[in-house]
Amino acid sequence: MAYLSKDLSVLAYANGFTLWHYVTADAADVVDAAGYFNAAADMLRVGDIIVANIDTGSTPKAGLFLVSQAASGVVDVNDMTQIGTTDNR
To answer: Could you write out the three-class secondary structure of 42-70?
Structure first.
């Protein structure tokens, strides 16, 4: 799949920082590839955080992506920091 603007929404905004939510069937390694969010370059800023629900079509995961580059139409996010990696109970 690819980035879909309808699946990116603002959760909170303060002091030039935005907390986003994104949901996709794409895997983390697809989402954190440079250029995945290029279509949102006019909205995302370095330091923004994206809370993401990914891989929704198979084994859903959740995590955080930090926007590390957002300039001249190019967006890159750091590798996802996964939330809730195990369930032992």
So the answer is: CCCCCCCEEEEEECCCCCCEEEEEEEEEE
**C-alpha to C-alpha distances, 36 to 15, 19, 77, nearest whole angstrom:** 26, 18, 9
Instruction: Give the integer Cα–Cα distance in Å for 67 and 32.
Output: 10
Instruction: Give the list of residues 6+ apart from residue 61 with CB closer than 8 angstroms, or none.
Output: 28, 53, 54, 55, 80, 82
In single-letter form, the type of residue at position 8 comes to L
State pLDDT tens for residues 4-62.
999 999 999 999 999 999 999 999 999 999 899 999 999 999 999 999 999 998 889 99
Give, as one character, the DSSP assignment of residue 78. P
How many CB atoms are located within 10 Å of the residue 83 CB?
12
| Statement: the pTM of the whole predicted model exceeds 0.85 | yes
